[in-house]
Amino acid sequence: MNLKHLRYFVTVAELGSFTAAAEQLHLAQPAVSMAIQKLERSLSVQLFHRHERQISLTDEGNELLILAKRILMSADEATLAMKELSGLQRGEVRIGIPGMLGSYYFPPILMAFRHQHPALQLSVIEAGTRKLQQMLINGEIDIGVIVEDTPSIELDTLPFLREQMMVVMASDHPLATKTSIDIDDLSEEELVLFKEGYFHREVIDKLLLQHGIKPHIGFETNLIPLIKQIVKQGFGISTLLEMVIKDEPALIARPFSEPVLLDLCIAWRKNGYLSKANRCFIDFVAAQKTQP
């Protein structure tokens, strides 16, 4: 089985077009078609249904796509490991971070790391915890930030931060007079929440479900500045990490009566190869971690 042909196959399958795959691979379209035909002959299967203007994977093609991605990921890791043994480094850290932490916790860490290691390239992707877990497993990113209570047997984790979830409201909101907020207090309030798939949305959904509360969600958005503006104008309350509203006098943060603590972790693929750059970044974050 030819690795180059497998790469062509994965590209065609993901783009759904021989022409688009050829453009991305910087090859002539007939060359890509011939490579796929050779791969089909070597495996004695048909990988694509070829229609007049479109293609689709056969059952065999769908099965090979899963296996091909694993094979290519392992091949890339083996190549990287051998290069590093000969003194070369990839020099890139691909990290996925949820938006709240990416905006308010990680900027000084990323800048300090870059200052210490100016030759290394940082590639930061913003996504929710669930999406980041899947991207790690698929090899789309090297490192991700997830919540410890949503682990995967396919990932290794390192706790680095414990933060308290706070109820956030306008300074003149009736709940602002309380020193802490009962979960039942949320039952009558219009809520401004992140979309599903983000860690703090999952925490709130779980809390409300445990108490049999059906939430009144007025706004769903991943834009933190928009969340803060909506809350400031009194159109709802939200739940955020306390770090988000520092230097925001128009907003008040109150803890839950039963504190809601989040243990955040750096995660990477179990048994996957970590480059020197990635190991260096994990060690750097571990050195900064906040003790519970």
UniProtKB/TrEMBL annotation:
<dbReference type="InterPro" id="IPR050950">
    <property type="entry name" value="HTH-type_LysR_regulators"/>
</dbReference>
<keyword id="KW-0805">Transcription regulation</keyword>
<keyword id="KW-0804">Transcription</keyword>
<dbReference type="Pfam" id="PF00126">
    <property type="entry name" value="HTH_1"/>
</dbReference>
<dbReference type="GO" id="GO:0003700">
    <property type="term" value="F:DNA-binding transcription factor activity"/>
</dbReference>
<comment type="similarity">
    <text>Belongs to the LysR transcriptional regulatory family.</text>
</comment>
<dbReference type="InterPro" id="IPR005119">
    <property type="entry name" value="LysR_subst-bd"/>
</dbReference>
<dbReference type="InterPro" id="IPR000847">
    <property type="entry name" value="LysR_HTH_N"/>
</dbReference>
<feature type="domain" description="HTH lysR-type">
    <location>
        <begin position="1"/>
        <end position="58"/>
    </location>
</feature>
<dbReference type="InterPro" id="IPR036388">
    <property type="entry name" value="WH-like_DNA-bd_sf"/>
</dbReference>
<protein>
    <submittedName>
        <fullName>Cyn operon transcriptional activator</fullName>
    </submittedName>
</protein>
<dbReference type="GO" id="GO:0003677">
    <property type="term" value="F:DNA binding"/>
</dbReference>
<dbReference type="InterPro" id="IPR036390">
    <property type="entry name" value="WH_DNA-bd_sf"/>
</dbReference>
<dbReference type="GO" id="GO:0005829">
    <property type="term" value="C:cytosol"/>
</dbReference>
<keyword id="KW-0238">DNA-binding</keyword>
<dbReference type="Pfam" id="PF03466">
    <property type="entry name" value="LysR_substrate"/>
</dbReference>
